Amino acid sequence: MRWQVLALLMLGVGCREEKPAEPLASLAPPPLPVLSVPSKDAGGEAPAVEASPVEVFGEALPSKALRLELAGESLRLEGETFASRPPAEASRLAERVRGKAVLLVPDADTFLAQTSELLATLRQAAEEVWLRHPDADVAYPLVLRDEEGFREWLAEVAPGKLRIIQRADGFELSTSVGKLPGADPNGPSVPVRGGKQDIATLRRGLGLLKGRFKTAEDICLVPSFGTPLAQAARALSGVYTAPGEPLFDTLCLVYPTPPP
Predict the structure, then answer these.
(1) Which domain of life is it from (predicted)?
(2) What is the mean pLDDT of the chain?
């Protein structure tokens, strides 16, 4: 009798239904929202067009920072002129800014590719680096990263890894799980409108990413190397929702690695 009971118990164990494994697709993160621009045809509001003024936000200008004015290949620091490329000039500039805060004031014709040696010097010597907005009395505190430093940042294990890729045709908002799609899935997340940067839509897109990656504390702006530095400063206004209120605590600017 005992062996019959044991056989029934074993039979019950063998017939127990196993729970199927979750499909691999269910383990993937949910897709990013689409940054659509409402249209009047769809019954929504008119698209945000940069032709109309967009309020500029940022931080108050640092009162004790050294003012470093950029004009193409030349620099002017508190009345003293430097050339931006010769190694001897870089050493002299490094001594002037060592341990101090520096406010970069770009002109309209200084491109990121022209500033690689300067930004490398500031990264090594200055205590703080700020970039002034060309159209308003606000500025942005920056963490400077060259291309290698940017790759190291991307390799860190952290949620989000949010970056703004700034191109001639607009902004691409990229994350660790893909690009934030805009109205055109094959185009930039935020295309230019009327030939100008669409800061209003950029600000809205970054708000969507902040809602998705709530613990993300930093974001990198990665302009194409032919971008004027003043345009990069305008893009940083999109990270702010009000004066002194950025969506992310740390703003990183990626610059081209200087030639050896």
Answers:
(1) Bacteria
(2) 85
Structural domain boundaries in the chain: 59-254
- Average of per-residue pLDDT across 188-194: 92
Residue from 123, 149, 114 nearest 226 by CA: 114
Which of 110, 100, 116 minimizes the C-alpha distance to 62?
A: 100
Q: Letter for the amino acid at 157?
A: V
**CB distance 170 to 192 below 8 Å:** yes
The tokens for 62 are: 């640092």
d(Cα 223, Cα 112) in Å, to the nearest integer? 8
| Tokens describing residue 33 | 């929202």
Tell me the CA distances in angstroms from 204 to 18, 190, 239, one per residue in order: 47, 10, 9
Q: How far apart are CA 133 and CA 240, in angstroms?
A: 13
Q: Is 230 in contact with 132 (CB distance < 8 Å)?
A: no
**DSSP class of 73:** T
Least confidently predicted of 62-66, 86-90, 159-163: 86-90
Q: Alpha carbon of 123 to those of 141, 150, 187, 194, 255: distances in Å?
A: 12, 13, 33, 36, 11
CB 105 within 8 A of CB 67: yes
Q: Which two tokens stand for residue 44?
A: 């929504």
Least confident of 32-36, 41-45, 97-101, 233-237: 41-45
Per DSSP, what are the bridge partners of residue 104?
68, 131
Q: Name the DSSP class of 61.
A: P
> pLDDT (tens digit, 9 = 90+) per residue, 149-184?
999 999 998 889 999 999 999 999 999 999 999 888
Beta carbons within 10 angstroms of residue 83's beta carbon: 14
